[in-house]
């Protein structure tokens, strides 16, 4: 039965019982009403009428006695009148009673009363007549006696009638009481019965419904929301609405299980891809600067085996060609001296030779129990799985890799091995090519020296031949043979020279490809910088204008909104610079300049930059510097200060109460050696930044030094940030020859220790770091040492003193930019200073405006524009003599290294990089307009 039908049936039964109960109560009440009506309206009235008749009769009787005995004539007349009136009233009441009686006995008694009263009336009339005639009471005695006798009968009959009516009334009242009591009993019984029936019905409804709902609730409570792979199902026992709910829940559970499984599969695939790509990148990074195949083999097998979970491994490289071709073992992992595998093999020899012949990988799972190859300090262990894989380059096997593991290799490890081996062939070929070039070069040098020696020997022999002509003839044959040998060697030398030339050309081609790749990456970084900085330029300029309380027409809240937009833009600019910094570090092309700096000024510098932060957060900021720390220190001051700024910024950001302290002391070289090599440094300094903040759990202390990583998602949501600060700190520290470590407990605070060497001579490979292709320089330009911020120089102060001269009024500036947002921002900012603004979207429009003879005082020139870029436009302007002295300020968001020099060479008077700082731009304009 459906839930709705149950409800209707239950409530129907309840209504039915209520209707029956109300019907019976109405019936009983109607009977009770009839009985009460009969008592009140009929019996009571009849009794009342009989009483009134008796009263009238008694009064008439008294009046007769009075008239007959004591009354005078007037009183007698009045009494007779009363008797007549009473007689009329009695007759009318008797007539009324006669019409209302419904009982036979009552009618009989009334009839007797009428008869007796009629007889009494006759006697009464005779008495009245005689009284009127003047008879005395003695003459009336016989009539009076007869009247008394009749009166007694009348009264008796009347009393009997009254008693009868009262008895009927009592019976009726008794019946009404019984009816009332019966009704009360039935009502109680009906109410109890109704309550029982309703209760049973409600209990039946509730139990039948709650049982199904409890089964649903029980299933829902048993769901493990942390594991939705298996969700319990609700048994469908009914076909009603609750059954529909159970069916819908079961369908939802099926969908959730399918979705959860898909989510797990997707997460697992992403994790596997990240695992593979990270390790492939790690191995690819290892390939750099390897020029020897044996070094490559040793590093490769040493790095690959742990990643594959292998316990032993061997690396074979092809040697020789044709029938002499063989594969020689160059490196092994966890080998056991000479016994760890074969020294060499040929194609088709053994399984590894067969794999090399077929150019296919092979995995061996069913390994005999007596096959023992993995050795430990306690003995030997037989492996569970062996993988043999060829390294193919241009459809030719150049090497073989064999790994053995105590556990079966997973599908993920196999995929990883295939991807690694895809690039290993190219690397082996490149390394062998470089080795072959070096070998040919050495052979060529040796042969050249040999030829020089032979030439000298030949010259000596020639002189001897001239002096000893006789021996010339005997030695002619020998000389001819020597010449032939020399010619043969010359031909060999020429052939080797050609081979050397071919190898050189190949090497140059590869170098060009690397150079082109570096150029593409540099162009990408430069274009990315331009695309990000261009919209950011207008955001920063307009928000700075809107947030100026002296100039803006906005209210205080709107100005605060503008300041928040400007602050967010500055944060975005910092993030862009951090990403560019990190990318330049990763490719090894960040410029590092080792120079002298004064460490004695460092405490004051830190106080000046962070005291206000400590005061704002109400925490202590303590700096301690040991006396043995040298004042003069050789390092890159800009990178050094940027590392300290990032460490202190993090310390203050994650510390809500307590203190942040900095300890500067001379480092123990033996302590530093456990983290990094200490050769080449004159001395070491150790800087500890300690806070009492949230701390870092042990399992997250390595993760925080990776790019875009923080302790956990909750930390990032609460405190913000990109996770680049510590990554940049460690990379900069490595560039400076130092290292950064962390010691922390969650909830107890953190200590970051920065080890840095003093390098008077710098690094030997510093030239390599500087010799980079054109690279994005915006990060270098913007990331100035924090100690120099906010200190205006004398030139700036002079410009501010001349601000009253209003150098911008009535000056015309031509803004050349293809971005309407930048034009809008600059137009509003400069118009606010009182300047007249002309705009052009490219170089052609700029030249047209100049040709029209507009009186232009200064040009703001964007560099990257369609059609004619800024370089060509400035060159064409400077070709016209009348514009030789016209100030042109180059504006660009590309900010590549060497851009400034290129702009000045093209004809720019000055150079400002985007995003623009309004004060900086106005300062530059003020200088050129006043000059």
Features:
single chain; alpha/beta; six-stranded antiparallel beta sheet; five-stranded mixed beta sheet
Helix fraction by DSSP (H/I, runs of at least 4): 55-70%
Structural class determined from secondary elements: alpha/beta
How many individual helices? 24
Strand order of the largest sheet: 3-2-1-8-7-4
Shape: elongated
Distance between the termini: 99 Å
Overall mean pLDDT score? 76
Query: Poorly predicted ranges (pLDDT <50, ≥5 residues)?
Result: 712-718, 765-785, 787-805
Task: Please identify the oligomeric state.
Answer: single chain
User: Approximately what portion of the residues adopt beta-strand conformation?
Assistant: 5-15%
How many β-strands, per DSSP? 20
The main sheet comes to: 6 strands, antiparallel
Commentary on this structure:
The chain has 24 helices and 20 strands. By secondary structure, it is of the alpha/beta class. Strand 14 and strand 15 form a beta hairpin. The longest helix has 81 residues. It is elongated and about 235 Å long. It starts with a helix and ends with a helix.
């Amino acid at each position: 039965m459906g839930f709705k039908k149950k409800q209707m049936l239950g409530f129907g039964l309840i209504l039915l019982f209520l209707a029956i109960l109300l019907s019976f109560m109405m019936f009983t009440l109607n009977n009770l009403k009839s009985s009460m009506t009969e008592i009140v309206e009929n019996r009571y009235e009849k009794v009342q009428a009989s009483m009134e008749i008796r009263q009238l009769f008694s009064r008439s009787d008294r009046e007769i006695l009075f008239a007959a005995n004591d009354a005078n004539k007037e009183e007698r007349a009045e009494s007779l009148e009363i008797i007549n009136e009473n007689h009329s009233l009695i007759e009318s009441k008797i007539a009324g009673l006669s019409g209302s009686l419904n009982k036979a006995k009552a009618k009989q008694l009334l009839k007797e009363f009428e008869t007796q009263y009629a007889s009494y009336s006759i006697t009464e009339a005779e008495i009245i007549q005689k009284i009127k005639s003047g008879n005395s009471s003695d003459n009336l005695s016989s009539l009076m006696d007869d009247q008394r006798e009749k009166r007694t009968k009348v009264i008796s009959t009347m009393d009997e009638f009254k008693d009868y009516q009262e008895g009927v009334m009592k019976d009726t009242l008794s019946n009404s009481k019984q009816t009332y009591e019966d009704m009360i009993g039935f009502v109680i019984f009906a109410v109890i019965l109704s309550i029982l029936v309703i209760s049973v019905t409600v209990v039946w409804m509730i139990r039948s419904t709650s049982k199904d709902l409890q089964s649903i609730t029980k299933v829902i409570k048993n769901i493990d929301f942390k594991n939705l792979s298996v969700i319990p199902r609700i048994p469908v026992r009914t076909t009603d609405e609750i059954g529909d709910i159970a069916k819908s829940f079961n369908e939802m559970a099926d969908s959730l299980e399918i979705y959860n499984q898909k989510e797990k599969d997707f997460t697992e695939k992403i994790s596997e891809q990240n695992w593979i790509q990270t390790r492939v990148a790690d191995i690819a990074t290892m390939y750099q600067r390897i020029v020897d195949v044996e070094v490559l083999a040793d590093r490769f097998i040493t790095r690959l085996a742990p990643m594959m979970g292998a316990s032993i491994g061997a690396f074979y490289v092809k040697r020789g060609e044709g029938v002499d071709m063989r594969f020689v073992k160059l490196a092994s992992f966890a080998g056991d001296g000479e016994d760890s595998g074969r020294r060499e093999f040929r194609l088709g020899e053994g399984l590894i030779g067969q794999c090399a012949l077929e150019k296919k990988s092979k995995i061996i799972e069913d390994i005999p129990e007596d096959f023992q190859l993995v050795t430990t300090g306690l003995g030997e262990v037989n492996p569970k799985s062996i993988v043999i894989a060829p390294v193919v380059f241009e459809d030719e096997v150049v090497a073989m890799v064999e790994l053995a593991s105590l556990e079966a290799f997973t599908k993920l490890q196999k995929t990883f091995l295939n991807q690694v081996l895809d690039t290993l062939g190219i690397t082996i070929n490149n390394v062998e090519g470089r080795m072959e070039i070096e070998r040919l070069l050495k052979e060529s040098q040796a042969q050249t020296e040999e030829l020089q020696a032979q030439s000298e020997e030949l010259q000596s022999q020639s002189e001897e031949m001239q002096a000893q002509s006789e021996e010339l003839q005997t030695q002619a044959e020998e000389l001819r043979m020597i010449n032939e040998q020399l010619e043969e060697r010359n031909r060999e030398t020429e052939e080797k020279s050609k081979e050397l030339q071919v190898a050189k050309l190949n090497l140059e081609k590869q170098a060009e490809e690397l150079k082109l790749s570096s150029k593409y990456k540099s162009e990408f970084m430069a274009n990315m910088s331009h695309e990000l900085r261009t919209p950011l330029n207008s955001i920063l300029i307009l928000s700075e204008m809107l947030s100026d309380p002296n100039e803006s027409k906005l209210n205080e809240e709107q100005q605060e909104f503008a300041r928040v937009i400007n602050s967010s833009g500055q944060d975005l600019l910092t993030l862009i610079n951090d990403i560019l910094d990190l990318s330049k570090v990763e490719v090894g092309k960040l410029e590092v300049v080792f120079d002298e700096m004064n460490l004695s000024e460092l405490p004051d510098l830190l106080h000046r930059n962070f005291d206000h932060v400590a005061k704002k957060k109400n925490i202590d900021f303590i700096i301690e510097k040991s006396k043995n720390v040298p004042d003069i220190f050789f390092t890159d001051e800009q990178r050094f200060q940027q590392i300290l700024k990032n460490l202190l910024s993090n310390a203050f950001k994650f510390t809500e109460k307590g203190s942040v302290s900095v300890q500067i002391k001379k480092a123990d070289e033996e302590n530093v050696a456990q983290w990094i090599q200490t050769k080449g440094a004159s001395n070491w300094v150790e800087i500890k930044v300690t806070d009492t903040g949230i701390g870092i759990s042990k399992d997250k202390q390595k993760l925080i030094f990776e790019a875009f990583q923080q302790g956990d998602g909750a930390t990032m949501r609460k405190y913000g940030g990109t996770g680049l600060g510590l990554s940049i700190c460690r990379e900069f520290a490595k560039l400076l020859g130092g290292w950064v470590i962390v010691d922390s407990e969650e909830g107890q605070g953190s200590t970051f220790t920065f080890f840095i060497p003093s390098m008077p001579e710098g690094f030997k490979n510093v030239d390599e770091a500087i010799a980079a292709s054109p690279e994005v320089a915006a990060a270098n330009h913007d990331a100035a040492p924090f100690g120099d911020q906010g200190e205006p120089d004398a030139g700036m102060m002079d410009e501010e003193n001349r601000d009253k001269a209003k150098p911008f009024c009535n000056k015309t500036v031509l803004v050349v930019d293809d971005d309407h947002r930048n034009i809008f921002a600059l137009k509003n900012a400069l118009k606010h200073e009182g300047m007249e603004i002309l705009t052009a979207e490219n170089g052609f429009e700029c030249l047209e405006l100049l040709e029209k003879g507009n009186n232009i005082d200064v040009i703001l020139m964007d560099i990257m524009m369609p059609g004619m870029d800024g370089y060509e436009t400035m060159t064409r302007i400077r070709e016209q003599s009348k514009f030789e002295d016209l100030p042109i300020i180059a504006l660009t968001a590309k900010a590549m290294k060497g851009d400034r020099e290129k702009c000045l060479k093209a004809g720019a008077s000055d150079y400002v990089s985007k995003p623009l700082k309004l004060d900086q731009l106005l300062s530059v304009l003020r200088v050129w307009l006043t000059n």
